[in-house]
Specification:
8 helices, single chain, globular, Arc Repressor Mutant, subunit A, 5-stranded antiparallel beta sheet, 4-stranded antiparallel beta sheet, 9 strands
Length: about 250
């Protein structure tokens, strides 16, 4: 669906509480609407799409739809408005819960785009491309034999509970699956559209950012340990490379 997109540009990023009901007569840009909290329904002329927390909908430029809140609580979403040649792409619905940078794109992407420098804006674009790669891969998986993905399930489940463990050995994950490191990495990338190392890095740094935003950071050493790094200097280095600013200066 999202093949050979040319001239991709981020026009705006909005993180907001949605209204209970609204009608969009003609969407100005193509966009991804990511559900951060609550659930909503998009009603198009020929179909209706329910979008729950951790899910995303693609909204084509020029489309008309009704937006209806379907949960009792307020809904919060992150909307990424894009310009580019998407061809005749139709509205589409995806779960992005396993996208390695899902927490970051749901909660922090808007601030990075609005307040970041030029380097950080390029970083935003790279995250959008990573998201496009991920959802394009989801579409491919619908037509592939998924049996080999079961081979890495022991490691995927282990990561779920130990991803912030300072003693996690990423290079040893293949051992619990009984396959070679090369084959494990190949299957992992096919499933998550990123390497095991980058998957863990994205999850850890996104969690670190959420701790900083909560105002409960403590020292950099304490923060590093919380998200899985024994060496605070190394943690500070990878954090700054990812966000363009050190942990202690993130919200200054």
């Amino acid at each position: 669906m999202f093949e050979n997109i040319e001239n991709l540009k981020i026009m705006s990023v909005i993180h907001k509480t949605g209204k209970p009901y609204t009608v969009v007569e003609s969407r100005k840009f193509n966009g991804f609407s990511i559900r951060v909290k609550g659930s909503v329904k998009y009603r198009f002329q020929d179909r209706t799409i329910q979008v729950n927390e951790g899910e995303m909908i693609f909204l084509p430029k020029g489309s008309r739809y009704e937006y209806i809140r379907t949960s009792d609580e307020d809904t919060i979403g992150t909307i990424i408005n894009l310009e580019g040649d998407f061809g005749n792409a139709a509205p589409a619905h995806f779960s992005i819960r396993e996208f390695y940078d899902v927490e970051y794109i749901m909660h922090h992407f808007s601030d990075l785009w609005k307040f970041g420098n030029q380097s950080q804006k390029y970083q935003c674009l790279s995250i959008v491309y990573a998201l496009l790669a991920y959802i394009s891969n989801l579409e491919l998986l619908e037509y592939q034999d998924k049996k080999h993905f079961n081979l890495i399930e022991p490691a995927v489940k282990y990561l779920k509970y130990h991803i912030f463990d300072c003693n996690l050995k990423i290079d040893n994950l293949h051992n619990m699956c009984g396959i070679s490191h090369t084959y494990f990495r190949k299957i992992f990338i096919a499933r998550f559209s990123t390497s095991p190392k980058n998957y863990v890095l994205g999850k850890r740094l996104s969690y670190a950012k959420s701790i900083i935003d909560s105002g409960e950071m403590g020292t950099v050493k304490e923060l590093a340990m919380l998200v899985g790094y024994k060496d605070p200097l190394y943690f500070g280095k990878v954090f700054k490379k990812h966000y363009g600013v050190s942990p202690q200066n993130m919200n200054k």
